[in-house]
Amino acid sequence: MDIPVVERARPTGLWRSYVTEVAGDAEELAASHRLRVGRPKADRQMVVVLVVAALSLTIINFYAKRVGWVPGLAAGLGADPDSVAGLIGDSQLTRLGIWTAVQVGAYVAIPLIAIRVAFDQPIADFGLRVRGIGSHWPVYTIMLVAVTPLVVAASFAPSFQSKYPFYDLASGEALWPGMFAWWLLYAIQFVALEFFFRGFLVHGLKWRLGYAAIFVMVVPYNMIHFGKPLMEALGAIGGGLALGTLSLKTRSIWWGAALHIAVAGSMDLLSLYQRGLL
User: Fold this and answer.
1) Helices (H) and strands (E) in the chain, counts
2) CB-hemisphere CA count at 13 Å for 194?
3) pLDDT tens, 247-270?
4) pTM above 0.90?
5) Which of 65, 177, 180, 248 sits 20 to 30 Å CA-CA off 188?
6) Whose CA is closest to 53, among 103, 111, 113, 99?
7) Dihedral sign, CA of 101, 102, 107, 112?
8) Percent of the chain beyond pLDDT 90?
């Protein structure tokens, strides 16, 4: 007697296009890559990506928010360390500029050096593709619309208002030029962050780990949110998974960076509004 075969409903629409097909393609890519180059070589690339990631995150942890090393570096370059220390101490924009510069160096410069030295791949393959990404804007717009009510709700929390914005706008101070200068630094930092997590990590690990590269990326991405409000740290898990999957789909970080910048800017504005500074 033949046993009837019950076919499961296949996912359709956005879920199929942006999740199931992406996962399947990533698994096939990793399997074919291991066969083509050999597992030892595939393993070596994975190890390089992970070691470079650990180095970059360590540098950010010890140097981004601690500016005491800057006067010593200035002295080594022939500048007056006391003058540099005084400038840093008097200007929060200078401190935030150093924070941004360290992040760009660790998130972008170090991985780019690793790609050039260790990998036989174009830099554009690590999420920097531009051509053909225009058609994906509706998905990112849906994500922005979905997350906005959550951001608005979170803005009522004192922990949120005490954390954002990183630039401490004084009572009566205009947004220009200080806050606008900070937003420019903030945007640069988010491009660097997206390149590191959704570019270097995701596209560097996909050749060995397939779709699992996204889950590996999410662990350190979640951890850099540990000093932030709890709901934001939890949201980083889902956001990291979504942006990682979209980066695999589009092979690009640019829409993700734009989304991140839009959300972060709205968080700053909402915090200022709740505190009566707008």
Assistant:
1) 14, 0
2) 26
3) 999 999 999 999 999 999 999 999
4) yes
5) 248
6) 111
7) positive
8) 79
